[in-house]
Amino acid sequence: MLQTIEIVGATAGPKLLITGGVHGDEYEPMVACRKLAEMLKPEALRGAVTVVPCVNVAAFERGMRTADDGLDLARTCPGKVDGRPTERVAHALSELIRAADYYIDLHTGGVAYELFPLAGYTLHRDPQILEAQRRMARAFNLPLVWGTSPNLDGRSLSVARDAGVPAIYAEYGGGSVCSAAGTAAYVDGCLNVLAEFGMLERVPPQNGVLYVKEDPRDGSGHLQLGHPAPRTGIFEACVALGDRVTQGDRLGTVTDVTGAAATDITANASGVLIMLPGLPRVVKDQATAMIVEV
Ligand SMILES: [Zn+2]
Asked: How far is the CA of 115 from the centre of ligand 1 (A)?
C-alpha cells in the first residue's frame, strides 16, 4: 500500500530505508526522497536503498499533518493490518522498517512548527545499535545531533528500536515552505550516511555538526512540549532558531488580539533554541519554544 522506489546496487550490501511524508504537511522530505531516487545509480551502489517519498498520502492530499481519521502516524506505529486508515499505513510502514538494516525518517516542523536542523536517535539499550545510530546521526551532518529517551512509543523509530534496526530521524525547518536549503541538506545527509556504511563513494563533507547532546531523561525528544502559550493569541518572538539563550531570557510575548492581555514567554532552560511556532497565531497551551541544553 506504500509507494516505494527501490534502487538495488550492482554489488551486495546493506539495505537502507528512507522515508518522507510520515506527516502530510512536511515537504522537504518528500522532495529530497524523490531527488535521491533519481540520483542513486545501481552501478555506483553497494546494497539497496528503498525510498518512500510520501508515507502518508492521505494526509498529504489534505495538506495536513494527519489523514481524515485524525490519527498521528507518528503516534500510531506499529499499527494494525485491519485497522483505521492511518493504522493500516502504520502497519505497512512498520513492515518496511523491520525488513531494513538501517532506517532514516525525514521530517520538518510541518505547518505548526519550525525546527533547527537536527538528526536524532533513541538512546538504545543495545550498545551496538546505539553506536550505529550515533554514526548515522553524525554522518548526516546537521548542526544538532540529539540522542533522547528510548521510551517514546508509537513512532517509526519505536518500531526500529523494537526490531533492532539502527535508525535516525531528521528535522529541518517547517512552516508553509519547501526550502531549497532543507531539501539539499536532506539529500546530502542521506548520501553521507550511505557513504558512512560504504554503500557509495563520496568525498567527506566539511563538518557541519555544532552540538552533540544525549539526554536520557524520560520524555526527552518530545518536541511538542515546553513554554505553553497562556492564551490563544499572537506570539511575537524576539529570538531565532539556533540562538543561544539563558534561563530567564525573554523569548517573546503572547498577546491576545485586542492587546488586553500580554504575557512574556521566558526561557525555562539555558541552551540552543530549536523550535518556534510556524504560524504567528498560537492556541492556548500550544508549545511556543523548545530549548536543548547543550
Ligand atoms: Zn513530522
From this structure: 11
